[in-house]
Amino acid sequence: MTHSLHRSGPIESQKKDFNWFMYQTQNVNDVNIKPKALEFIAAAEAVGSENWGDVKSGPRTQYKTEEIIDRITDKSRIRGVFTKREQVVEFLKIMKEKDTGLSVVITGVLSEVLPACEEAEVTPHSINYSLGVWGKKDNLPDDTTLSITTMCGHHMIPPKYVEYMMDQVKKGRLTADEAAIKLANFCYCGIYNHVRCSDIISKTVSEAAEKEVASTKE
Amino acid sequence: MTIINKELCNGCKICNKFCTVDAIHYLAEEKKCYIDQDRCTECYVCLRQKVCPRGAIQPIELDSFYKQFQHVISDPVESHGVTGVSGRGTEEVKTNDVSGRVIKGEVGVAIDMGRPGMGVFLRDAEKVAMAIAAVGAELAPQEHTPLAALMTDLKTGKLEEACHGYHLLSVIVEAKCKEEELKQVLEALQKVQYEIDTVFSLGLIIRTDEKGQTKVLETLDQLGIPQPHRGKVNVGLGRPLSLA
Fold first, then answer.
1. Which terminus of chain B, N or C, has less C-beta within 10 A?
2. pLDDT tens column, A108-142
């Protein structure tokens, strides 16, 4: 699955959006995963991973750390979010030292991720490069909605629900942070960047309000 | 199959905004909601989020192999039976440092059909698989990727006809080719993108040098394809490390 690869939105916004992953390879290093998963979680928490989870249990935005840890099995896939390059560097340094033998993957804007690898003294082995969206794009949602929905690469977030959340924030019934958490909870993997989502909602709602004021003055 | 029980539905329409592919609609004459079964992908978001206060949204037994396939691939909580991988059941770059599936001199091609968020009928996945297979791309076998289980011929990418009408939230057409074949594979994708009724997101999996660079991407310039700014970087900490 390439569920973290094809995120969209302005590059500057994407530069505050990284995903980290722990992966076991089937029939090679896929047993006794829990102690290794705990190393990943400890490293991620030590550097302040904003969200993380296991697709079999759900995201940290919805469940307590202990609940997710209790349910870790050999099938678990632990992954999460960073919002700063410095976190990526520190996380990679720790994982290199821990040497769990599991694959470690970082997704993000390459001009941020590759220097982070260099600083952490890890050597990229392979890269899955995003070449964007092809085909019949006419029916896609608008760019702002896509920048929110594509943060759940399995597309568990319905575009109409994004519209509804925007409206709730506009009407003052929810804060942008509250709406972002509700959206993050659709993404069971824990790779949803609710911090970036909240920024996008705030910006969109305030721009819409400014436009409304401007049109009233006219 | 997921349905709305008409006896329980009161037509409040709350559920309409919870469908990932906009397959839940309101029927004004009956004052009830219903699920468009042709478009529903069995992703189970409406069920898992418990959106109906009256419990009218209900799962019904997935009574065929294709319905089960549709659900397993569309719902990331499920693991695929053969590959053992959750999500859409593929490994692509994430374990390449150990699996060595894509080696130096090769390019992995991961075509996320239906993504972002439009969904894909399997007939369109077939068109894309056949287009790249025709120019020499080697489609991944079913031990590596779920879609291959529906292929009658891995050499051509043809799918079983009975599956064509099933709508999935997304499915990956996975293949690889030699570096020197990448240009014709991309040209085939440039052409077939206008022959499908959906979108796809394209990823190229490449073994890189120690700086994360590769000359293969120069092929993109020849075809007018913008250079990528995002990537999923396998940092080479898996063991045993594949040096191939």
1. C
2. 999 999 999 999 999 999 999 999 999 999 999 99
Last residue of a domain, one of B59, B90, B107: B59
Which residue among B76, B110, B190 sits closest to A2, beta carbon to beta carbon? B110
Distance (Å, whole) CA B184 – CA B181: 6
Q: Do B193 and A135 touch (CB under 8 A)?
A: yes
In angstroms, the CA B36 to CA A63 distance is 33
For range B175-203, the mean pLDDT:
98
- Give the integer Cα–Cα distance in Å for A67 and B90: 27
Answer yes or no: is B12 within a domain: yes
Question: Number of folded domains in chain A?
Answer: 2
CA distance A36 to A43: 11
Does any CB of chain A come closer than 8 Å to the CB of residue B134? no
B-chain residues within 8 Å CB-CB of A25?
91, 95, 98-99, 238
CA distance A121 to A145: 37
Give the residues of chain A that fall short of pLDDT 70: 1-2
Q: Are residues B125 and B169 in contact, defined by beta-carbon separation less than 8 angstroms? A: no
What is residue B209's DSSP assignment? -
Most A CBs within 10 Å: which of B94, B174, B186, B211, as the mutation test of the A interface? B94
| pLDDT tens-digit series, residues B25-38 | 999 999 999 999 99
Which residue in B98, B225, B234 is closest to A124 by CB distance? B234
Query: Domain count of chain B?
Result: 2
Interface size between A and B, measured as CB pairs under 8 A: 282
